[in-house]
Amino acid sequence: MAGTLLTALMLFLFKRVCDGEPTVGGPDRVTDQHGTNKLVYVTSQWALQLVNDSLPFSRANSFCRSQFSSLLTLNESENHEELLELLRQAGLTSSIWVGQSPKPVAPSKQYFQVSALRFPKESREGFAHVNITFPALSAISVCVRVQWDQDWNEVSTIFSYAAPVFTNEFQLRGQLDVQGRVLLALIIHGKHLPYKASFPNDGAWHQICVTWRRSGNHWAIYVDGEIKDKGSGTDTNRDIHGDGILILGQDQDSFGGNFTEPFFGNITDLNVWNMALESRHIRALNSCSTLSQERLFKWSLDHISSHPAVKEVQTSLICPAAYPQVELQDCWTLQGWTNQLPAWSQTECSNLLPFVCRSTKERYLRMKQITESQSVRPSAFMNQMMMLSNKSQPILAQQPSDLNNLAQASVLLNISAQALDHTPPGELEPADMVSLIQLLSLTADIPAQPPTRLENSSQDGVLELSQHFVSVADSIISEDNTLKWQAIKEVVNGPMDVVKSIDRMVTHLSPRLMSQTDQLTITSPNIKLEVQQQRLQEGSKVSSFCGPDTESHTHLDCISVPAQKIQDLHSNGFYKITLVNTWYGSLRPLFNPEENITMVPTVTDGSQRYLGTFLGSSVVSTTVLGDDQPVSMAVNFQLQHRVENSLGTVYDPVCAFWDFDLSPETGGWWNTKGCMVVSRHYGYTVCYCNHTTNFALLLQVYEAQRSPENEKALQVLTFIGCGVSMCGLLFTFILFIAVGVPKSDRTTVHKNLIVALGVAELLLMCSDWASDNKAACFLVTALLHLFFMASFSWMLVEGLLLWSKVVSVNISEDRRMKLYYIIGWGVPVLIVGVTLAVSVDKYKAEDHCWLNVQTDTIWAFVGPVVFVLAVNAVVLCRVVMVTVSSAHRRAKMLSPSSASKMQTFDLTWAVTRPVLILLPVLGLTWLCGVLVHLSVVMAYVFIALNSFQGLYIFLVYAVYNSEVRNAIKRIKEKRKALSFTNCSQPNSFLHSQRVPVSSWSRSPPTPSSPETSETSGANSSTSMSLVIKNESFRKESFVSFSMKQASENQVVQLTAFKPSGC
């Protein structure tokens, strides 16, 4: 008989309720092998399953969850017509459960000073008499708060009511059992009911309520708001006699006397009603709420007469405002339909009603497919189950009410764990996975009553159940089953469903698990579970919980509750604390890496390219129970980075938790609300979160643009380049002023560009020193913005000036310079001013002196720069086209026979030379910044070209500029002439001053010399010039790009500046 029961209990799990259900729209009735009718209505989106097996609301909700569906809720109006048809086809006229139950809220406790009566052990005569007259009662409720003396273990009477005609009319008794719990029993009309209800003898206050009504002789005992024992059908069906005496702390073997069973401890808050209170009333009283129902007696010492041994004391009564798992309201039901509209009502959540589970159509069909495949071909795991149970039938129909106690669950888990031990890794089939996950979900929701003397369950049995539970869960979330999780992802929300089941299981069983110990640890290859419990007092703190140590990691995964938060619990009136800590080491591979976690990148400065976010650590969880009730508290935790660093990849850790409420239909998702990174270290990260749940590290993946060594090298190169560039710009500006370079719009533009770029680079070099001062950093940011904008504006002017030379724009120099000044200085001032006015609060970056790249402010710089570079690129293209066409035309005019012989190299050099000279001046080297993220080489090229931009300008405008060289030569010749003390022909000096190029004439270039001069005759057979003349310049101020032909000694010149030779 026992073997048959064991096999039946073991096998029931593996038959799904969806067997034989329809897959098309409309209801269909099917009958399982037990004759139980089931009905499912499948629409285009949903599948509604009517479970005509009456359960309490919590069990109904649990069963739907185990089927990977949810209890049909009130707000799902789109299913009203389908539900009406489903109920009509089923012929169901009774009410059904609908969700949702009142949402739990975080508990809070408060102290209330109340008067109490102390019954000391020094006297066995102590009692208290309630001075009221009782009428005959057809129903009665008595609620009282007691504090049991922990050293007293004999039978005690909390209160006794005796009538003149019958002494043992109504009495509440208690006694200590061998496990240290206080057992309670009622005496009604002289009949002694069994000791079953209980509470721990922990020295704390406990609320006890007893109710009775003549109709049906129903009675119940509640402890701390929860029903602990109930029954009906006592022998005598009559009222409780009136005119009796209510005594506290003693029994009454005679009317009003003969006390033999004293109570020792404290009593307060006694209240009596002439009605049987309902469960919701008891729960409200436990939270110190006030009932509207009129009382026969309200606690007041003015109406109580006490024995001299009984002392009146003041005590602090702890009242929970709201417990998370206590429903202060009734649960909702669908009572019927009125005019095709649903009629809702509320009733006791403990009532037994049928219900409807709702799931998506896709999930329902996939579930059916998986279970049907198991029916046709049993898996290796199922064969192992059959072998262990000596049965040949692998499938037995499941009923929602089959698994309703811990003994049955323990048997199933034991057999499942044995079968898993004999099943090779990775050999579980999808149907096996689904069945085991359902078993864990159903087991986790079984309520665990405190042990009594009449139960065979003990702590060892509950511990064994927990160990089997963890063992089965470990096998399910093993990395070997990664592919199986992908196969069942349409049915099961994911591995976090298993995590949630473990949390619920330990929370429900913690009173039983910790009844004889203060610490408990259960370990498996992928899971470590630890439960700590202690009584709260001043200076209480709990130790940190860490995952298992491994040889490959020096830092452990740890989580802890701050000591101050523990003290806050004690200050708020909590008596004991229980911490449930769990570590999961194999969840990371089970999350599909292709399903990228959507999250805003934390690095947005453009230095790294964001690739995605994924789970990068183990998962740790903490559940805090204050007086066995869940409490949300802040935690600190550190987690290792479980990822292999690959070359060119950077990981930025983000502290997160799994939020089951974020996306209920899919089982939740990662959330970062309330969590922050405390510190980052190599290989691990320390986090803080202001609540308790399941935590992990999400790693944001970035493509590394450069290594720290390269970053340092680039910084040094930038600093050196800016220093050299500033020196070059300074020397160039001094030369323009000191040597007497002829004034023109061209030289004026050069000078403004030099000033703007020089100041900008000076500010850039000083920006690091200003970053510590907020005001100074803001000022430096604005000035950097202004002068870099001015630099690019004058680069634009350089391009416009060059364009005017190429296309001969007919505009006077004065008007042109006014326009250039407006563009060069007016536009930057306008842009910076408008930007500051519009976004002054978002103008500067947080950690350095530059524009904020995380807002649109950066476009106040990037936008104009892109425009300048685009215009100058067009100008450069036009210059190259003119240069090439001029070279061809002049070569054809002067030597037609050789024009066709121009070699490719010479033509390429004719194009390349002006490009190399003009790129820095026009700012086109900044285009390399677009390619910086592609390669570190491009970063070096970008820094070299732009940080040394001043050096390029110095070389082009000073070292190789014929105007500067000629001006220096004139100064040298003047000084040389003045050194002659006996000079007889001063006119020769004046002549040499008026003809600055005479030295070129005295030394004409040879065919092998690259040097060119505008004094070369137009009819020379060895050189030529293309000169676009600026009428405002003197003849000797012409500047050119030159190119010597290899065969003809030809030179191509373009007016812009005049290098003297290369």
Could you explain the architecture of this structure?
By secondary structure, the protein is α+β, with helices and mostly antiparallel strands. It folds into 4 domains: 2-103 and 346-511, no CATH class; 109-320, Jelly Rolls (Sandwich), CATH 2.60.120; 518-704, Chondroitinase Ac, Chain A, domain 3 (Sandwich), CATH 2.60.220; 709-959, Rhopdopsin 7-helix transmembrane proteins (Up-down Bundle), CATH 1.20.1070. Helix content is 35%, strand content 23%. It has 24 helices and 37 strands. The strands form 6 sheets. Strands 24, 25, 28, 29, 30, 31, 33, 34 and 37 form a 9-stranded antiparallel sheet that branches. Strands 7, 9, 10, 11, 12, 13, 17 and 19 form an 8-stranded antiparallel sheet that branches. The chain has a 7-stranded antiparallel sheet with strand order 16-15-14-8-18-6-20. A hairpin with a 2-residue loop joins β11 and β12 (191-192). α15 (774-807) packs antiparallel against α16 (813-838).
